[in-house]
Specification:
Blueprint: H1 3-14, E1 29-36, E2 51-55, E3 58-60, E4 62-66, E5 72-79, H2 88-101, E6 107-113, E7 117-124, H3 130-133, H4 144-156, E8 162-169, H5 180-189, E9 192-198, H6 207-221, E10 227-229, H7 236-247, E11 251-255, E12 266-273, E13 279-281, E14 285-287
Parallel strand pairs: 5-6, 5-8, 8-9, 9-10
Antiparallel strand pairs: 1-11, 1-13, 2-3, 2-12, 4-11, 6-7, 12-14
Length: about 290
């Protein structure tokens, strides 16, 4: 993905783009939020009164806060394009590590992507999926945006309010028919938190690598997720273990917006805790529904 493409992506996310509009209904807004203390440890057992929420600067009433014990649905996207050659085995090992960490009530689906997106496993709580990902081989181009878009559509149909997309890639899209902004909007509509794990080879002078990292970072930051750099796959298993841990301590926060206008505009969200010294990580906002 070129720098020009990335700049278009960044602009389109902040305002209405030329792509087909994908909007979130403004009546119920779902946020997945991680609360940490000054030492970075997850803060647990908070209720509705512990949070303060604003939309475009206006205070909102929180309808519910679901605890960390609620189940999550996640889609793992494994890049098996030609640029991932010699690192696919590491990606496979990391995916297995992720499956080892899920709880019985959690549901995980697995896709691989190269020039096309392929479902390896539908949503399941089974940890015995090794055979389905054992034969993965690197080949072809990279349809990163298409993969995120398809994962978002899959998650939108799920009953779980806590939803995540875990992307394992070097970040270079060379094939997608869907733009980065459209893929991101689909993820926002599905209330999905995106975690991106960069496996590109380390090279300080590699401008393309830095550009690709910025794309992965944008997907994560705008949905309340995290970006993890694992150059060449170093410490990849540890990174996936941290993501599973992160998913297990998220709060699910829901509210009905006081602004019921179906104007299709971007609405900025600010979620904080009444207790000082705590940090909250969640998505930046959403697009209101638009009149048909």
């Amino acid at each position: 993905m070129t720098l020009q493409t990335f700049l278009v992506f960044d602009s389109a996310v902040a305002q209405n783009g030329s792509d087909e509009e994908i909007k979130i209904d403004s009546s119920i807004v779902i946020l997945n939020a991680l609360v940490t203390d000054k030492d970075g440890a997850a803060v647990k057992n908070l209720g509705v009164d512990a949070f303060e929420l604003h939309e475009n600067g206006e205070r909102q009433t929180i309808d519910f806060v679901e605890p960390q014990s609620t189940p999550f649905a996640a889609v793992i996207l494994i890049d098996v394009s030609g640029s991932m050659e010699h690192r696919v085995s590491l990606a496979r090992s990391a995916a297995i590590r992720f499956l080892d960490g899920i709880r019985p009530e959690d549901q995980v689906s697995i896709f691989s992507f190269h020039r096309k997106v392929e479902k390896l496993q539908d949503f399941s709580n089974s940890k015995n999926l090794r055979s389905r990902i054992f034969d993965l081989k690197a080949r072809g181009y990279t349809a990163l945006n298409d993969a995120i878009y398809k994962a978002a559509l899959e998650l939108e149909e799920r009953n779980e309010k806590r939803r995540a997309i875990v992307v394992l890639s070097d970040g270079e899209d060379t094939r997608s028919g869907v733009s980065a902004s459209k893929a991101l909007k689909a993820a926002q509509r599905a209330h999905a938190t995106i975690y991106t794990v960069d496996m590109s080879l380390m090279s300080p002078a590699n401008t393309r690598r830095r550009q690709n990292q910025q794309v992965l970072k944008k997907f994560s930051s705008k949905t309340g997720g995290t970006f993890v750099a694992t150059p060449g796959g170093v410490q990849l298993r540890e990174a996936f273990a941290e993501i599973v841990k992160d998913l297990g301590v998220l709060y699910t926060v829901g509210y009905s917006s006081t602004n019921q206008s179906k104007d299709g505009k971007w609405r900025k969200i600010s979620l904080k805790t009444a207790e000082k010294g705590f940090s909250v990580r969640t998505r930046e906002g959403y697009y209101a529904a638009k009149k048909k």
